[in-house]
Write a structure and sequence with these properties.
The structure is a single chain. This protein is mainly beta and 584 residues long. The protein has 6 domains: 2-203, Jelly Rolls; 213-282, Sandwich (Immunoglobulin-like); 292-352; 360-432, Immunoglobulins (Immunoglobulin-like, Sandwich), CATH 2.60.40.10; 438-497, no CATH class; 505-583, Immunoglobulin-like (Sandwich), CATH 2.60.40. Helix content is 3%, strand content 49%. Strands 1, 3, 4, 6, 7, 8, 10, 11 and 13 form a 9-stranded mixed beta sheet that branches. Strands 2, 5, 9 and 12 form a 4-stranded antiparallel beta sheet that branches. The longest helix is centred in the N-terminal third of the chain and has 14 residues, at 2-15. It starts with a helix and ends with a strand.
Length: 584
């Protein structure tokens, strides 16, 4: 146990400044067991026991004792806390002389429950000059309710006078009712000569340094905190330890409480407690009226400061109470005054901003192909929708998040956003006709036909699989083209091709021009053909014009015919021939 006690001495000298500084007296050499030293509750007064041991203040020294440590232990299962009773007497030739100091501490002085009791008087240290003294001590601890007992550790080595033990009520039946040395109280059956204790403090001759705490008892509002407390003197060799744990000369205090400071020499650790200063921080009323952004239809807007408990509220416009209203954007302020006199305030900024117009999907201008329909939605979600046509602003056609349209026109939407703000917008639907392609034909040198979809389109799809504007037809048959225009609308046309690869003597002997023609066509044929009949047929095979002549030269006027492809059938005594004519 000796090594354990000695190892803690240096730690306490440095870290335990609030309860101990310099070790002034240390008689511990060979600690042994423990003996009862306890002031019990009234019902157990006959068991009250006390131990006295002597110590000496050397010649030429003055001590300022700020704490005394009594090393001890508790009985099994005892509550590990205790107060202390300490008395100091002059030593009158081995007996108690004048009582110089006594203190009964009812509160716990065993900070960590290890059985080491450390009463302290840091604020008013005990002053002793050179001489011999008796220290009398015991634990102040109730036995009942599980309190148990405390035992003061004995010291085997004699240092000055022998330690003495007393049980005035003789509750332990030892017969040692007055102070008797351990080894003379037979019932104790111990031969030890002292007890384990240490005395801490500072050397004199003057009281340890101490000046004044700069600062008075103060009451302030929390909005005005912190208050500054400073300690004097100011010197590089002086340290400070405040009751809140800070170590600077000056501290900022923003909470209620009593504040003290130990001012000490950083080399000797001798110090002096100053204070307390009582700081009372009154609560300043606080309430945050939040900034807000609202839409115009929400105005007038209610500003709310929902403070209770007798708080007086005054708004920028002189209104009182928890709310007021405003009808435009701006920055507004409010003050709060509590019954304690503290005044708080807050400002808020109100921004008025209309909801953005809706963004329509697919767009605000929509092309609608003949026979189709389009479903219109919005990029943002709203809590309510009303759709209609501008031809009737009062009739709602749809109230869901989407609107299906099957004819051209201008349409409107009135919607309400999640924040309660309204918005509106219009979109236009344009009817687009179905494209109607026509055909153009031209012969190739091999008798095939170049078939062209007349008109300008974005894409072409032929029944024969090609996707170009013009295709080459090498076989008779029915051909269909489907075109897609710039609006995505589609249309189709079909043609029956029957004259691919025509080659016969009669046809080859006839000449006609121009081909293509826009009206007049001149025909000529050789004399040997003599009488000739000429029939003009449309694409369906219907005869639309007939000519009979033997002159070998004729002119037909086809200007009244529709543009398109026509077939010329020639009948002569030598036979029949066929040619194709394009009217444009």
């Amino acid at each position: 146990m000796k090594k354990r006690l000695l190892s803690l001495m240096s730690l306490l000298c440095v870290a335990g400044l609030s309860t101990a500084q310099v070790v002034l007296f240390d008689p511990i050499v060979t600690p042994t067991g423990g003996s009862a030293a306890q002031d019990f509750e009234t019902v157990n007064d006959i068991y009250d026991t006390y131990i006295a041991d002597d110590f000496t203040v050397p010649a030429g020294e003055d001590w300022w004792i700020d704490s005394i440590r009594l090393y001890g232990s508790y009985s099994a299962n005892a509550i590990t806390e205790a107060g202390a009773i300490i008395s100091i007497y002059e030593n009158d030739n081995g007996s108690f002389g004048t009582l110089l100091f006594t203190d009964t501490i009812q509160t716990d002085v065993d900070g960590n429950g290890d059985g080491w009791l450390t009463p302290n008087w840091v604020g008013s240290p005990i002053s002793l000059s050179a001489g011999s003294y008796w220290l009398v001590g015991s634990a102040r601890k109730d036995f009942g309710g599980g309190g148990g007992q405390w035992y003061w550790t004995r010291e085997e080595t004699l240092n000055g006078e022998a330690a003495m033990w007393a049980n005035p009520g003789n509750g332990f039946a030892t017969g040692c009712t007055s102070y008797t040395p351990f080894y003379d109280c037979a019932a104790l059956a111990v031969a030890d000569s002292g007890v384990a204790f240490r005395i801490y403090g500072c050397y004199g001759p003057d009281k340890p340094m101490g000046t004044s705490l700069v600062g008075n008892d103060t009451t302030l509002c929390s909005a005005d905190a912190p208050v500054v407390l400073s300690a004097l003197p100011t010197d590089p060799e002086i340290g400070y330890l405040w009751s809140n744990g800070e170590t600077s000369q000056t501290i900022n205090v923003d909470s209620s409480g009593e504040y003290t400071v130990i001012i000490f020499d950083t080399l000797t650790l001798c110090g002096f407690r100053q204070g307390p200063v009582d700081i009372t921080v009154l609560q300043t009323p606080e309430y945050d009226v939040p900034d807000d952004t609202v839409c115009p239809e929400v105005l007038p807007y209610t500003l709310l400061a929902n403070l209770q408990g007798g708080i007086d509220i005054t708004w920028f416009n002189g209104a009182t109470g928890i709310f007021t209203t405003v009808d435009q954007a701006g920055t507004y302020w409010v003050t709060y005054e509590a019954p304690n006199g503290c005044i708080g305030s807050d400002t808020m900024t109100l921004t008025v901003q209309a909801e953005a117009p809706p963004t329509f999907i697919p767009s605000s201008t929509i092309d609608l192909c003949e026979g189709d329909e389009v479903t219109v939605t919005t990029a943002d979600a709203y809590t309510s929708y009303e759709w209609g046509n501008v031809t009737d602003l009062n009739t709602v056609l749809e109230s869901s998040s989407s609107f299906t349209v099957d004819e051209g026109g201008t349409y409107w939407l009135d919607a309400v956003a999640a924040n309660g703000c309204g918005t509106s917008g219009e979109f236009t639907v344009v009817d687009r006709p179905t494209p109607t392609p026509t055909f153009g034909e031209g012969y190739t040198s091999t008798g095939n036909i170049n078939l062209t979809a007349q008109g300008s389109y974005d894409s072409y799809a032929w029944s024969s699989g090609q996707d170009t504007k013009t295709i080459t037809v090498t076989e008779n048959g029915i051909y269909t083209v489907t075109v897609t225009d710039e609006y995505g609308c589609q249309g189709s046309a079909t043609i029956n091709i029957q004259n691919v690869g025509i080659a016969d003597p009669v046809a080859s002997s006839f000449n006609f021009y121009p081909n293509p023609t826009n009206g007049l066509v001149q025909f000529s044929w050789p004399d040997y053909q003599k009488e000739a009949f000429i029939h003009v047929m449309d694409a369906t095979g219907r005869v639309v014009r007939t000519l009979s002549s033997s002159s070998g030269l004729e002119v037909l006027d086809l200007s009244d015919l529709n543009n398109g492809i026509y077939f010329i059938q020639m009948q002569t005594p030598q036979g029949e021939g066929n040619l194709k004519l394009i009217k444009q």
